[in-house]
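Hi team,

Filling in the usual template for the complex we talked about on Friday. All components are listed, including any nucleic acid strands or ligand strings, so the model treats them as one assembly.

SUBMITTER: L.P.
PURPOSE: interface mapping
COMPONENTS: three
RESIDUES: 620
SEQUENCES:
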Amino acid sequence: MDGQVIKGLVAIFLAAILTENYVLNKFLGICPFLGVSKKLNTAVGMSCAVTVVMVIATAVTWPLYMGLLVPNGLEYLQTVVFILVIAALVQLLETVLHKYMPPLYNALGIYLPLITTNCAVLGVTMLVLEKAAGDPTFGYVQALVNAFGSGVGFLVAMVLFAGVRERLEECDIPQCLQGLPITLVAASLVAVSFLGFNGLVDRLM
Amino acid sequence: MNEEKGGLWREFTKGVLRENPVLRLVLGCCATLAVTTAASNAIGMGAAATFVLVCSNAAISLLRNVIPSKVRIPAYITVIAGFVTIVQLFIKAFSPQLDTALGVFLPLIVVNCIILGRAEMFASKNRVLPSVVDGLGMGVGFTATLLAMGILRELLGAGTVFGLPVLSGFMEPILIFLLPPGGFFVFGMLVALAGRLSQEKKAPADPGCDHCPLAASCSKVRGEKEAEG
Amino acid sequence: MRLSGKDLGRPTLVLVCICAAVTCTLAGTHLLTADRIAWQQAQNAEASRRVVLPQAETFTPLETGYAGETAGETVGYVFETTARGYGGAVRVMTGIDRTGTITGVVLLEHGETPGLGANAERASFREQFEQAAPAEGLTVVRYQAPGPGQVEALTGATVTSRAVTAAVNEAIGLYYQLTGEGGGTP
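RESULT (copied from the run log):
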């Protein structure tokens, strides 16, 4: 039984990174994906900040939704409550990091204000609830693992894409495609590579 | 009077053409890529976002002198989230099919950068009427772009437009246009085309922080912190 | 940055007022639309039940599903089951008549990829299920013509095909559980 649960968690984690990749499969968090993936170190910093916020946001919104909104029949307040909780959390995290952990703040803190409106964070808190609705074995722990996996998936996509873009810098690109268009075409090709993982989920589940 | 009308007309058309939110300002990419697998979804998404945009622009413009600048982002987000939920409830009540098709992207209109971006850049500085017109123009521009992408992807990827078979027998649909890579590719091509047709004759550069609606508050936060330390 | 009472008070007050106003508006909208949403969902469910069990005129709720009746006589059962697909839960409604034949399968909700898994909505895939329901369940086959008790997977969407089949099999299980209890094996 325990082994089964752990196997399930590993499957959720891998699926969140490879087949349900937030950026390349679900189109969540495209703005930072295009915006801060130019250099490898900013890409890593941003992704780590996103991962941390995703896990904390899920850890807070899940009990709020299950314990407070559902018993009182207030599911329709979900959007308002979640976005405010995320905004408050991000602000709190920034203040705490700034005060107590300046090195970490310098590495991650500068990305935090941008994360409030990152749709990947709000997306993960809502999608885990959707998953839980369709699968009774999907509980709090599974939701946290899913959130963490989604963050790592974001990191993987960002790092891969930063590598691709660094090579693009040296390329001779037709004038009409320079700038954003070629970046999007490159993203398209990276997304093709992630399509290759589709068969994997077959064996995982 | 006439001049004012011309001004309003310009506010409207700038959103559709010169400052098209998606193709020129590079805002709201997530929804653009995600829901454009069918032309009908594109219209539904565009209409919902336009409604939220117009209402939130009006509300924020009305409240612009009341909201202290320190809490303006949370205040804007709350107002926007309220309108998004209203739209969501009405869509659930009158078109459950659309609700299923748009899925999580309907509540995610809250974090669509177009809406927060226009609140921050326009509605918080302008009177109600221009703000409403600006919201309407941006909404129409957004819808038009979504529709163009939706038609292209549905036509090439499934051989249909609005569910009606168009390409049947003429050519095999190219499935990849419906999948995520096709979304990125079609979007890239549209941005290139819009860039070519624009006055500057080039596509926007890579979106950095200056495209983000939070950039102002973000660098301000950092500036304050630096001044303090 | 020093915080005086005035600095803290006004922003907090404004924010609280906005939150309260938004919540009240939403509560109002919810009251307005709640009945309509419930009615809409009931309508959809009723319409789907008619599709999967066309010979029934009325439906009575049971513990595990619905019994379809015509002129007071039970002609079949309808079950709603869920399985995990590629893009999340796949909700399926299955109709099985008294002779143990599947009369229809409908996808109520899914998040499958458009162009691949979402093709499971197509009639050509769903109609494969309309056959005698084996007690041990249907199986999915690939790259070959399906025989009795088999369903051919959609190209490039094996996970979705398996999910739909698993949900239908669960419905078959519920059916035999129900009819088994009703006295005598079918």
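MY TAKE: Chain A has one domain: 2-204. The CA atoms of residues 83 and 153 of chain A lie 22 Å apart.

Thanks, L.
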